[in-house]
């Protein structure tokens, strides 16, 4: 086990009766990075996290967390990590402040200065009973409790669901701070813009398997660049060029997608046609993400 | 109240029936079965006028029996029907009442705590539809119980009018407490509190009727303060007074109207009592697993301790009347002497302590099930993701359960002891009853152990442990009437504890029960250590 791996899953399998929730999942999170964990609902993100926390027991493969076994060494490992569950359920008759103290103490202590600062930054009223909190406020309680700990690993399951855009920005700052302090973060999310902003590397999973993993730069190479161009004449012949897909007329312009390796050749040929105007943008994470799910999208009747 | 507030009631009724498709038929079938078997056994046991007279002369005017069975209307000119009323009426009424309390709370106040209620309310569902649907299902359940038991009792050979009056009276008590729970659901701030309030009101009404019936003094009015008193007041098989059933119906309607009225005056998810701001920091002691478990359960523990103590004190304080009764009725003296070989008062006191122990078992089970409810609510996930081991987490709740059971059992012993000591002026009765009550602890620990075993290995079946309590109650209260075979009675751990103070102490059965409890609990803990956390 290399010292640089905070989390490593190899061919992880988990079944619930006839359902195979994880089907040979691989995940590799390096120490000190912010790792995005992406996948549609039901892909197995939460199940993976719960196995890493020793709440569920894997049926096959291997999972290692901070160099230990997440099932057998649960208590020792949990002193070094903090978790924010996707569905934040809090004891309805305890106040937010009490719950932060409780979870902090059970993890082995809170940083008092940071606790006060986070409550302030997230604009949380710690004197309210949990039953009176909205979903977003419950999420804030769990986030403050996790971020105020001295944990070296943060496991966050869709932590910004229910937060308003302002609080999302605060959250992103906090993750950046954690990274600067050398902490590791595993962050599952649906909000791709957020992942794009804060994550160093991402793992995309689908139906319990890993489909892509790497830095955003590495993943972009696998995707297509979108080009929108106005040339001297009609320009529809572009459709016949190698590496070009999905050509559409868009007013006076032509839009199309280009495979990353073909970009150079395509631009040269466009120059020969006489470019009036050209705009290109690299693939967004969203496009990257959606490309992994072509089959599901077709099933759902969505046309790209 | 306009028509639109009830929109969607029909669909909600179907939803409740679908969600309770196992639970509700079990309650209904259990109550019907209990009544059917009781009716045929009473018929078989008391098959001659001499035997009937023998029964009534033993029972009549004996306060110890009146408090558990009823005042014995029709004992002057008895038929077998009045024996059936005496043996079943109150307990069936209590059963119907508890069925309604659980059912109505589950689908009103408790349901609001889940986010499903908001989801449902946002669909085309009127403001009163939720309460109405829960009450309609409760009404249906009680009507099915009434109709089936009337038919079965008549079929066994009892008169139709008397059967209808008896079965209708306990069915209507069920309906009345459905309405009472609908009100409790509006007042309490949590589902758990609403359940406690509904069950406490049923218990209070049950006891009030008992005190009223044995009182010759100013307390006699208590008989008519309680739906249980009205049900007994129907006088089935003794010149039926149908207006008493009408009284129950009118009471139910009035209370239902109150529930509707209260429901529009509060917001979904809140009680009538508004929440105040709480502390911003947690006291140090409450931030450990044990501290949290105590914190979460202390309200319930306090409520049970007070409720059990008061109930026990009532039972203890009638102890002296049994002595007086002995002076007047040598036949009764012989009956008990032949039956138990112990003083009649001690037989009564040991019976009272056992009844109380069944009540205490209610606390023990609701407390031990806290582990499971914390798990399904998702709180266990937060706890176990911290540096809290599974042993420590379950163990903390278990420590509170066992310590709480000792406390509530002690409250029962102290209550009976104090009540009895005060009326006979003998302080030595307090430690004597306390000891006799605490001797029942191992039997309760066995049932707690069973719950832990289920929790460890079959978590989704953990609630089935309420069935064990039902079995203990049926064996303890109806064992004789149903003529249950010995091996069936032996299934109840309470049967194995020596009946202190009527019988001498025996170490062996107590030690065996204690050992069984330890084994069951340990096996359950091992199972939990090995399994996945699961949802509901």
- Number of helical stretches of at least 4 residues of chain B: 24
Q: How much of the polypeptide of chain A forms β-strand, as a percent range?
A: 25-35%
Q: Let me know the largest β-sheet of chain A.
A: 6 strands, mixed
From the 3D structure, determine the CATH topology of the largest domain in chain A. Answer: Rossmann fold
Q: What is the CA-based Rg of chain B, rounded?
A: 24 Å
Largest interface: A-B, 39 and 35 residues
Helix share, percent of chain B: over 70%
Number of strands of chain A: 13
What multimeric state do the chains show?
heterodimer
Q: Between the first and last Cα atoms of chain A, what is the distance in angstroms?
A: 42 Å
Any idea what the shape of chain B is? globular
Class from secondary-structure proportions of chain B: mainly alpha
Which consecutive residue ranges of chain A, at least 5 long each, have pLDDT under 50? Answer: none
Written overview of the protein:
The complex is a heterodimer of chains A (304) and B (536). Chain A folds into 2 domains: 5-219, 3-Layer(aba) Sandwich (Rossmann fold); 224-282, ACT domain (Alpha-Beta Plaits), CATH 3.30.70.260. Chain A has 11 helices and 13 strands. Chain A has helices at 45-52, 74-78, 96-106, 112-121, 135-147, 165-180, 192-198, 216-221, 263-273, 285-291, 294-299; strands at 5-16, 19-30, 34-38, 60-65, 81-84, 153-157, 184-188, 201-206, 209-215, 224-231, 244-250, 253-259, 275-281. In chain A, the strands form 3 sheets. A 6-stranded mixed beta sheet of chain A has the order 5-6-7-3-8-9, sandwiched between helices. Chain A has a 4-stranded antiparallel beta sheet with strand order 11-12-10-13, covered by helices on one side. A 3-stranded antiparallel beta sheet of chain A has the order 2-1-4, covered by helices on one side. The radius of gyration of chain A is 23 Å and the shape is elongated. The two termini of chain A are 42 Å apart. In chain A, 43% of the residues are buried. The mean pLDDT of chain A is 89. Helix content of chain B is 73%, strand content 0%. Chain B is globular, with a radius of gyration of 24 Å. The interface between A and B is large, with 39 and 35 residues.
């Amino acid at each position: 086990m290399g010292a640089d791996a905070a989390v490593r899953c190899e061919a992880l399998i988990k079944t619930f009766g006839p359902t195979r929730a994880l089907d040979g999942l691989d995940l590799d999170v390096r120490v000190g990075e912010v790792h995005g964990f992406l996948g549609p609902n039901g892909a197995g993100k939460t199940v993976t996290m719960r196995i890493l926390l020793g709440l569920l027991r894997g049926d096959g493969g291997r999972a290692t967390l901070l160099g230990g076994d997440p099932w057998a060494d649960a208590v020792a490992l949990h002193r070094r990590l903090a978790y924010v569950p996707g569905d934040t359920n809090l004891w309805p008759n305890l106040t937010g402040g009490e719950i932060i103290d409780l979870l902090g103490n059970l993890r082995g202590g809170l940083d008092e200065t940071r606790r006060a600062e986070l409550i302030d930054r997230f604009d949380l009223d710690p004197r309210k009973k949990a039953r009176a909190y909205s979903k977003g406020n419950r999420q804030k309680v769990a986030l403050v409790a996790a971020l105020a700990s001295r944990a070296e690993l943060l496991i966050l399951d869709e932590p910004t669901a229910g937060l308003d855009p302002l609080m999302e920005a605060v959250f992103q700052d906090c993750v950046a701070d954690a990274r600067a302090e050398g902490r590791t973060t595993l962050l599952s999310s649906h909000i791709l813009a957020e992942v794009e902003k804060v994550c160093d590397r991402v793992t995309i999973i689908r139906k319990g398997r890993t489909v892509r993993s790497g830095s955003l730069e590495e993943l972009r190479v696998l995707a297509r660049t979108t080009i929108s161009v106005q040339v001297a004449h009609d320009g529809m012949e572009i459709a016949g060029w190698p590496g070009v897909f999905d050509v559409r007329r868009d007013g006076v312009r032509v839009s199309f997608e280009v495979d990353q390796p073909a970009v150079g050749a395509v631009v040269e040929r466009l120059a020969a046609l006489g470019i009036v105007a050209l705009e290109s943008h690299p693939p967004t994470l969203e496009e990257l993400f959606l490309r992994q799910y072509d089959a599901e999208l077709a099933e759902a009747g969505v046309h790209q | 109240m306009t028509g639109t507030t009830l929109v969607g009631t029909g669909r909600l009724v179907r939803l409740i029936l679908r969600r309770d498709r196992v639970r509700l038929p079990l309650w209904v079938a259990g109550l019907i079965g209990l009544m059917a078997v009781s009716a045929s056994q009473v018929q078989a046991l008391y098959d001659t006028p001499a035997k009937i007279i023998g029964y009534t002369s033993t029972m009549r005017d004996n306060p110890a029996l009146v408090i558990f069975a009823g005042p014995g209307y029709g004992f002057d000119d008895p038929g077998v029907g009045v024996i059936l009323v005496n043996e079943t009426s109150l307990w069936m009424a209590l059963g119907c009442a508890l069925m309604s309390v659980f059912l109505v709370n589950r689908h009103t106040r408790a349901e609001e705590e889940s986010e499903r209620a908001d989801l449902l309310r946002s669909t085309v569902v009127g403001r009163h539809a939720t309460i109405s649907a829960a009450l309609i299902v409760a009404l249906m359940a009680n009507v099915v119980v009434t109709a089936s038991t009337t038919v079965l009792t008549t079929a066994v050979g009892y008169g139709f009018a008397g059967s209808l009056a008896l079965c209708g009276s306990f069915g209507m008590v069920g309906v009345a407490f459905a309405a009472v729970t609908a009100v409790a659901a509006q007042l309490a701030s949590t589902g758990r509190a609403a359940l406690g309030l509904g069950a406490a009101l049923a218990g209070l009404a049950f006891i009030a009727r008992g005190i009223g019936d044995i009182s010759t003094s100013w307390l006699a009015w208590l008989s008519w303060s309680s739906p249980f008193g009205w049900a007994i007041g129907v006088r089935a098989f003794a010149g039926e007074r149908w207006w008493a059933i009408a009284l129950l119906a009118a009471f139910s309607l009035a209370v239902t109207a109150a529930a509707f009225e209260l429901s529009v005056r509060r917001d979904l998810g809140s009680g009538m009592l508004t929440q105040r701001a709480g502390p911003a920091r947690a006291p140090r002691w409450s931030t450990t697993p044990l501290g949290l478990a105590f914190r979460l359960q202390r309200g319930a523990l306090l409520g049970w301790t007070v409720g059990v103590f008061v109930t026990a004190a009532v039972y203890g304080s009638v102890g002296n009347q049994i002595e007086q009764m002995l002076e007047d009725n040598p036949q009764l003296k012989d009956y008990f002497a032949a039956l138990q070989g112990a003083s009649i008062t001690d037989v009564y006191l040991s019976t009272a302590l056992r009844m109380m122990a069944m009540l205490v078992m209610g606390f023990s089970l609701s407390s031990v099930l806290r582990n499971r409810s914390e798990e399904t609510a998702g709180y266990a996930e937060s706890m176990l993701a911290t540096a809290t081991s599974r042993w420590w987490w379950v163990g903390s709740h278990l420590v509170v359960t066992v310590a709480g059971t000792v406390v509530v059992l002690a409250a029962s012993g102290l209550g009976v002891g104090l009540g009895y000591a005060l009326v006979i002026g003998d302080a030595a009765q307090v430690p004597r009853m306390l000891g006799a009550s605490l001797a029942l602890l191992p039997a309760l620990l066995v049932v707690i152990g069973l719950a832990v075993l289920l929790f460890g290995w079959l978590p989704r079946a953990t609630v089935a442990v309420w069935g064990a309590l039902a079995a203990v109650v049926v064996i303890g209260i109806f064992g004789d009437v149903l003529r249950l075979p010995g091996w069936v009675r032996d299934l109840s751990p309470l049967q194995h504890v020596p009946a202190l103070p009527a019988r001498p102490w025996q170490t062996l059965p107590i030690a065996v029960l204690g050992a069984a409890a330890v084994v069951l609990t340990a096996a359950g803990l091992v199972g939990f250590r090995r399994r996945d956390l699961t949802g509901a």
